[in-house]
Amino acid sequence: MATIAYPQSYYAASANPVPPRPALQEEVQTDVCVIGAGYTGLSSALFLLENGFSVTVLEAARVGFGASGRNGGQIVNSYSRDIDVIERTVGPRQAQLLGQMAFEGGRIIRERVAKYNIQCDLKDGGVFAALTSKQMGHLESQKRLWERFGHTQLELMDKNRIREVVACDNYVGGMLDMSGGHIHPLNLALGEAAAVESLGGKIYEQSPAVRIERGANPVVHTPNGRVRAKFIIVAGNAYLGGLVPELAAKSMPCGTQVITTEPLSDELARTLLPQDYCVEDCNYLLDYYRLTSDKRLIFGGGVVYGARDPANIEAIIRPKMLKAFPQLKDVKIDFAWTGNFLLTLSRLPQVGRIGDNIYYSQGCSGHGVTYTHLAGKVLAEALRGQAERFDAFAELPHYPFPGGQMFRVPFSAIGAWYYSLRDRLGV
Ligand SMILES: Cc1cc2nc3c(=O)[nH]c(=O)nc-3n(C[C@H](O)[C@H](O)[C@H](O)COP(=O)(O)OP(=O)(O)OC[C@H]3O[C@@H](n4cnc5c(N)ncnc54)[C@H](O)[C@@H]3O)c2cc1C
């Protein structure tokens, strides 16, 4: 079997050194077999190990190979659809539970970083930047909503105030969330994997789960080995393919692209983002950016429905970067890559159980750094028999994509075109 390497990203080039882990070559027995070593899988494994379960993690490529090792690194609180939509979709008790959890993922990341001494350049402070007065109005109501669920540390910013934190003239205002922030995402995943192993968990790389034998005593097959487990957690998200057909039917992998500049002079970096906060704008197809610890600008945006890899990523993303920061016109791009996240029709995560012993969480639809850490905790609670918070997620409706596997891409692209047109027109 060919070895799968990390994509050529800034993160892979600046990762804390870790030797590759072996592939599974035998039959092993474990309490829980986790499929996928991204944040969902690693967070689940860590919470389970901390609660006395034995855990085996199977990873098709390398730890953090998927979105968890390629993302913008932004700690964004809440979900890709906000709590007001959840309140309208489900009853008040469930909405209350989900609302209370909306900021927990960020706290889990900070606890993990502190407890396991993870070196991942953690910085506090995230900005939501409004391009129109309508978007600003939305941020004002979002602040009121989040405060109703006990989340403070939020500051609304007018045009002058946001200019103090972002050297971009395009914004009419914004909201600063000091419980947001940013990290080196691959180093966070690598640190969490080391924590899993420090507690006795086993991680096998280059070991794709190719078949699940379902039943009272499920078995996960890899090309050269088998895992017999009491429970399985499916955490393959946008990279899962057809392993679990029920999950593929109700979600769609989408690509988003990221570029990284050469290191900027200290002075230029300081003028762009003086407080070193990360920023995302409020468009439906949003742009997001931040500085790295060695003063590069990481800039992401764009969505490719169906997750085909675009030929020239720099040609797509550089114009967006220059629209925000024309002062970077002579700066060289050192890295460009793409990664896949999993979109659901409601843009809310899909959490559930198949049969008695196969659990899953997937589809955080773009914002998943915090949610996936929470998901690991909620899945671990369910395996321990405390399912109240798991049920709050599991009861959210799951819809199949209109058009099925064949037509979901064009249908969604038309939907996105409509919303991005509304963004451009400011309506
Ligand atoms: C380019 C990009 C930028 C993003 N930026 C942000 C951001 O700034 N902030 C934010 O909140 N969110 C962001 N996201 C979303 C966020 O990164 C994801 O929601 C999150 O990382 C998903 O984690 P995961 O563990 O569920 O999936 P993944 O990290 O994708 O992990 C799934 C893992 O499962 C493995 N796998 C799949 N199938 C199998 C199998 N059969 N057997 C074994 N292993 C398997 C894969 O190889 C992969 O390593 C971004 C996503 C992308 C792609």
Automatic annotation (TrEMBL):
EC numbers, comma separated: 1.-.-.-
Domain FAD dependent oxidoreductase intervals: 31-381
Record GO terms (molecular function): oxidoreductase activity
Top EC group: oxidoreductase
Family annotation (Pfam families): DAO
Gene3D superfamilies associated with the record: D-Amino Acid Oxidase, subunit A, domain 2, FAD/NAD(P)-binding domain
SUPFAM superfamilies per the UniProt record, alphabetical: FAD/NAD(P)-binding domain
Coiled-coil ranges (or none): none
InterPro entries found in the cross-reference section: FAD-dep_OxRdtase (IPR006076), FAD/NAD-bd_sf (IPR036188)
Annotated PANTHER family: GAMMA-GLUTAMYLPUTRESCINE OXIDOREDUCTASE, SARCOSINE DEHYDROGENASE-RELATED
Name of the molecule in the record: FAD-binding oxidoreductase
